[in-house]
Amino acid sequence: MPPLIKICGLSTPEAVDAAIEQGAAYIGLVHYEPSPRHVDLRTAAELRRRAGAHVKVVLLLVNASQQLTGQALAAVWPDVVQFHGTETPEWLGVVKRLVPAEIWKAIGLKDAGTLERIEKYRGIADRILFDAPASALPGGNGARFDWSLLANHRHTIDWGIAGGLTPDNVAAAIAATRAPLVDVSSGVESAPGVKDLDRIAAFCAAVRAAQ
Ligand SMILES: O=C(O)c1ccccc1NCC(=O)[C@H](O)[C@H](O)COP(=O)(O)O
């Protein structure tokens, strides 16, 4: 079975529709003001309504305060909350107990030590999203990590990969990691924050064709 697809950083109804038409399982809405993909809560709620039950909606937060987290969850009612900062397992546990959403934790994968450190999220995070280490932004930088780090790793938590994936390299990333989920943002854009509908289609086709 091909990996599940998450298209992240959507900000328009057209991009939401394209992701659904092309078979994405998840769409990501980034609520983080420094990002070129930031959507305010009103827009996020509108996009969430448009997505309906056709696709699962992932709300991305980065070290958000308790107050902002509450406001964002109440406005968007996401299927998944993706924490993309330095949030602790304890904080994820608090949110998990309060909202009927999956909890994902993004981790910048630097070296084998990172793989040991993520164990603290076991039993709390429903999925670990391995991404390139933070640089200009905590995520969405279009940078890859070393896929070979995952080649022989025995995963104890559901997982997926992100970071610098494109229609041209996603098949190689799947072959190298056997990831059950692939996530893309910059690789399906024509400019930062501007999704390219043809590239969304090409990415999804490449995932479906991957061995
Ligand atoms: O996309 C952003 O702008 C962003 C900003 C801050 C935190 C997370 C962000 N994106 C999270 C994602 O899940 C991206 O899809 C992931 O980092 C991969 O991005 P890319 O390398 O651009 O494909």
Automatic annotation (TrEMBL):
CDD domains: PRAI. Gene3D superfamilies: Aldolase class I (3.20.20.70). Its EC number is 5.3.1.24. Signal peptide: none annotated. Keywords: Amino-acid biosynthesis, Aromatic amino acid biosynthesis, Isomerase, Tryptophan biosynthesis. Coiled coil: none annotated. It comes from the Bacteria. The keyword Amino-acid biosynthesis applies. GO terms for biological process: L-tryptophan biosynthetic process. It catalyses: N-(5-phospho-beta-D-ribosyl)anthranilate = 1-(2-carboxyphenylamino)-1-deoxy-D-ribulose 5-phosphate. This is N-(5'-phosphoribosyl)anthranilate isomerase. It comes from Sphingopyxis granuli.
